[in-house]
Amino acid sequence: MILSVDGVEFSYSSRTVLRDIKFEVNRGEFFAILGNNGAGKSTLLKCLNRILKPETGTILIEKEDLFALSPREVARRLGYVAQRYESARFTVFDAVLLGRKPHIKWGTTARDLEIVRNVLSILGLEEFSLRYLDELSGGELQKVVIARALAQEPRVLLLDEPTSNLDLKNQFEVLTIVKKAARERNIAVVVVMHDLNLALRFADKFLLLKNRTVFACGGMEIMTPENIAGVYGVRVAVERLADIPVVVPL
């Protein structure tokens, strides 16, 4: 277990957004956070990244209190890909190199440059390394943002709806890269998702949120028609197509 969340609660003014959130994530896992709009998914991810501080409960990363770590140590352990980002006037190479900032003390080293080149290669971005971010397509830009997070060499990678503005081809490419990173780098990947079928195809474990608290948490065994209907309010069937689970509204 690399990430542990126990009894986390958070409110905006007097409005409770998260209540008694509990779950654990292991190394190498692709962990999907699911639920209707307003269920608290993005707020939970911001708590995991220390953008927001829970009122009660604990968040442990590698058995250490997330909120007791220095900002530099948090950046070394956590990579975060937000739902929205600005495409500043950086080249792709320089943007990914920013991911090395938590590790740089006196200046960029040969190892930093090698890590960036390796990540660019893994994501198929080598030919774009000298292009500017504002010259890229949405899919290319999303890959750059993920590359920057991977360049941090995090133990946990957090992503907030990473495929929301992508076409089908880029959705599969991005999630395949993320899943492969979890396996090959032995890191935990925590992803807020809306698309149940993408979640079923790529995730190992699922957290279902309803009314700002945990409805169910576990593997494929919790992704039943009854649980999905209980969270989303829609009758569904869960079928298998080419041995891949698919949710079909009824």
What is the topological layout?
Elements: E1 3-12, E2 15-25, E3 30-35, H1 41-48, E4 56-61, E5 64-65, H2 71-77, E6 78-81, H3 92-97, H4 110-122, H5 138-151, E7 156-160, H6 168-185, E8 188-192, H7 196-202, E9 205-210, E10 213-218, H8 225-232, E11 236-241, E12 244-249
Parallel strand pairs: 3-8, 3-9, 6-7, 7-8
Antiparallel strand pairs: 1-2, 1-4, 4-5, 9-10, 11-12
Helix pairs in contact: 4-5, 5-6
Task: Please give a quick description of this structure.
Keywords: ATP-binding, Hydrolase, Nucleotide-binding, Transport. Its EC number is 3.6.3.34. With 250 residues, the protein is an alpha/beta fold.
Order of helices and strands: EEEHEEHEHHHEHEHEEHEE
Give the terminus-to-terminus CA distance: 37 Å
* CATH fold node name: Rossmann fold
How many domains, in number, for the residues? 1
**Order of strands in the sheet with most strands:** 6-7-8-3-9-10
Uncertain residue ranges: none
Strand count, sense and barrel status of the largest sheet are: 6 strands, mixed
Question: What best-fitting shape do the alpha-carbon axes yield?
Answer: globular
What is the CATH architecture descriptor? Answer: 3-Layer(aba) Sandwich
Strand content: 25-35%
Can you give a write-up of this model?
Helices cover 32% and strands 29% of the residues. With 250 residues, it is an alpha/beta fold. Helix 4 (110-122) runs antiparallel to helix 5 and helix 5 packs parallel to helix 6 (168-185). The longest helix is centred in the C-terminal third of the chain and has 18 residues, at 168-185. Strand 4 (56-61) and strand 5 (64-65) form a beta hairpin. The N and C termini lie far apart (37 Å). Strands 6-7-8-3-9-10 form a 6-stranded mixed sheet, sandwiched between helices. The protein has a 4-stranded antiparallel sheet with strand order 2-1-4-5, with helices on one face. It has a single domain, classed as P-loop containing nucleotide triphosphate hydrolases (Rossmann fold, 3-Layer(aba) Sandwich). Pfam families: ABC_tran. Its EC number is 3.6.3.34. Keywords: ATP-binding, Hydrolase, Nucleotide-binding, Transport.
